[in-house]
Amino acid sequence: MHPGLLKNIYPSVALQEYIRKFQVFRFIFETDVVPPVKFHTPRPEHTITFYTKDPQRFSSINSGNIVTYPACVVNGIYTIPLIRYGGRDFLAIKVVLQPTVLSRLKILEVKELTNTFIDAEDSLGKEISVLQEKLSFMNELNSMIATIEDFFLHLIRKRLKPAEPIDKASAFIFNHEHMLSLDWLANQSCLSVRQFIRRFEEHVGLKPKMFQKIIRFDRAYRLKNNRPDLDWLHIAIACGYNDYQHLVKDFKEFTNLTPPAFYKIEKASPERRFALHEG
């Protein structure tokens, strides 16, 4: 088994307002090894991902229907878990966007992308095809990231809508350690609560309460991966849950499993096979 790579690369200053990070996954398995599957949890992110080697496939938890992603895919926010299957020679570069940037790029109505994906070529046309072809011939990671950055700088200049107060509210939610009240968020957005909920769903794809729940769940999931020595009660309190049962409720909603049962599956993921974890 070759050394694996799971790396966060942060964008240049010019793109930090629009891209949270680039996340790179690189796994190579020997031909006699069946690559382990990945139980993929809901995450509070819109992403555009490039698969430059073997494709990735996925299925929903209760479906035997396995679907292959295109070479470049735009994913909405998921509220349901998926099973993902990588190839033996697997390289993915995931562009994790700031919360409302996908909406501001006018690719499509983001509500239509919740729990699904589109082929990036269908919305971005030949430009993305040219970029995919360039990446397929490149092997040096820094050069690949620089090429993707150039593409996004061009895309932002060409298509990005100006920011609105509600775009800043989504950033408040993402960067705050605890759940924020709708009254306060609506006030910061210069909207009534009803208007804020409707506009937030238009810009993010989810209602604000659900978005905050997924952020809190994702923090708990990552904290356990980074600190497996911590017990679940400690993780629950650290991530803003009232108690352990409150944490269990979210885990059952987003994974269909209890926290210990989920973590047992997570330990068998491709990252763990290479002794890696997501930060």
Write the layout of secondary structure elements.
Elements: E1 5-9, E2 19-28, E3 38-40, E4 47-51, E5 57-60, E6 67-68, E7 72-75, E8 82-85, E9 89-97, H1 101-104, E10 117-119, H2 120-124, H3 126-136, H4 141-159, H5 165-175, H6 182-188, H7 193-204, H8 208-226, H9 232-238, H10 244-255, H11 259-266, H12 270-273
Antiparallel strand pairs: 1-2, 2-9, 3-8, 4-7, 4-9, 5-6, 5-8, 7-10
Low-confidence stretches: none
Order of helices and strands: EEEEEEEEEHEHHHHHHHHHHH
Which shape, going by the Cα principal axes? globular
Helix content, binned percent: 40-55%
- Provide the β-strand percentage band: 15-25%
**Level-2 CATH architecture of the largest domain:** Sandwich
pLDDT averaged residue by residue: 91
CATH superfamily of the largest domain: Jelly Rolls
Number of strands: 10
Structural class: alpha+beta
Instruction: Tell me the count of domains.
Output: 3
Oligomerization category of the chains in this entry = single chain
- Main beta sheet strand tally, sense and closure: 6 strands, antiparallel
Account of the protein in words:
With 279 residues, the protein is an alpha+beta fold. It folds into three domains: 5-159, Jelly Rolls (Sandwich), CATH 2.60.120.10; 165-205; 209-273, Arc Repressor Mutant, subunit A (Orthogonal Bundle). It is 43% helix and 18% strand. The chain has a six-stranded antiparallel β-sheet with strand order 1-2-9-4-7-10. Strands 3-8-5-6 form a four-stranded antiparallel β-sheet, with no helix packed on it. Helix 6 packs across helix 7 (193-204) and helix 8 (208-226) packs across helix 10 (244-255). It starts with a strand and ends in a 6-residue tail after the last helix. The model has no long low-confidence stretch (mean pLDDT 91).
